[in-house]
Amino acid sequence: MELQVEQIVTWMEKANEKVQDNKEYLTSLDQAIGDGDHGINMARGFKEVVQKVSGSDYETASDILKDVAMTLMGKVGGAAGPLYGTAFLKLSASVKGKKSIDYGSFVTGLEEALAGMKQRGKSEQGEKTLIDTWAPVIEEMKKADGFDCDLLSATAKAAMEKTKDIKATKGRASYLGDRSIGHLDPGSVSSYYLFTSLAETIRGGK
Amino acid sequence: MSQVGIVLISHSPKVVEGIKDIINQVAKDVPVELAGGTDENEIGTSVEKIQAAIERVHTDKGVLLIYDLGSAMMNAELAVEMSDYEDIEIAEAPLLEGAYVAAVESGMGKSLEDVKKACESALKNE
């Protein structure tokens, strides 16, 4: 299968639902080790994304991904804005001109998205950031031959849960040092919502 | 004589407004623009606000951006990358002290490079 424009809309709608449903939860995670606004910021950003993309007509998958990127950059407010915004912008650029996205191109696009986030946040895997969800998911996706919703969801969940054991060295949580251990990284949790929403979208499309 | 434009970026609109008040005591005519808070003036930063501030403050001497916390830096970098101007720099300096020194240096008609350098050494007594 290939990812179509309509599926990207569904993906964003599902991600928005999860973020809205878990707004308080994300905020409580961020209150423990950050500045406590991740839930509010993500809820605001994804609400705007859905408003932007739901009614619009898109020629290509890259066009809609670019709008997602610009909306997140403009509306989120916290670090998640430039990070997720950069990710979707890189993904969009990677699949530029494509009406729909085949699996290989999508994985390549995600790799470029990840590289963009690492550069934007000056961060690597293992520093208790959203990269710790993205990197393992992409690693597993590279090994698969096509979209596999169970693999996507399970890998994202396991990766997200692992961030509990990591000591933060980037972002606001790094000020806490060892006290950041034992808490989930909020960005990794919201990234899990993003990937599990993608998995649900693919499952629905089969 | 044109002066280097200065954009102050903070998570809070009040922070940059206060800093501008302090700057105005010593450097009244220096082009200083503010990008504090999100589009809704809540705590956070906005690429669009930073871009708009750059547009308002740009002179032929360029623009220096000074920011407070992590995501402000990311949004500052994004704004620079999306801008058509080549002469925009981001200073690695404490917001208040850096902005104060930068405004004084800019007021003397210094170049972007010199203003940035002075701004970044704001806490050193040189």
From TrEMBL, chain A:
Gene3D superfamilies: 1.25.40.340. Residues 6-200 form the DhaL domain. PROSITE patterns: DHAL. Keywords: Kinase, Transferase. GO terms for molecular function: kinase activity. Pfam families: Dak2 (PF02734). This is Dihydroxyacetone kinase subunit L. The gene is dhaL.
Automatic annotation (TrEMBL), chain B:
One of its GO terms (molecular function) is kinase activity. It catalyses: dihydroxyacetone + phosphoenolpyruvate = dihydroxyacetone phosphate + pyruvate. Residues 3-126 form the PTS EIIA type-4 domain. It is an enzyme of class 2 (transferase). InterPro entries: DhaM (IPR039643), DhaM_N (IPR012844), PTS_EIIA_man-typ (IPR004701), PTS_EIIA_man-typ_sf (IPR036662). The keyword Translocase does not apply. Gene3D superfamilies: Phosphotransferase system, mannose-type IIA component. PROSITE patterns: PTS_EIIA_TYPE_4. Pfam families: EIIA-man (PF03610). Its EC number is 2.7.1.121. SUPFAM superfamilies: PTS system fructose IIA component-like. Keywords: Kinase, Transferase. Component of the dihydroxyacetone kinase complex, which is responsible for the phosphoenolpyruvate (PEP)-dependent phosphorylation of dihydroxyacetone. DhaM serves as the phosphoryl donor. Is phosphorylated by phosphoenolpyruvate in an EI- and HPr-dependent reaction, and a phosphorelay system on histidine residues finally leads to phosphoryl transfer to DhaL and dihydroxyacetone. Homodimer. The dihydroxyacetone kinase complex is composed of a homodimer of DhaM, a homodimer of DhaK and the subunit DhaL. PANTHER family: PEP-DEPENDENT DIHYDROXYACETONE KINASE, PHOSPHORYL DONOR SUBUNIT DHAM (PTHR38594:SF1). This is phosphoenolpyruvate--glycerone phosphotransferase.
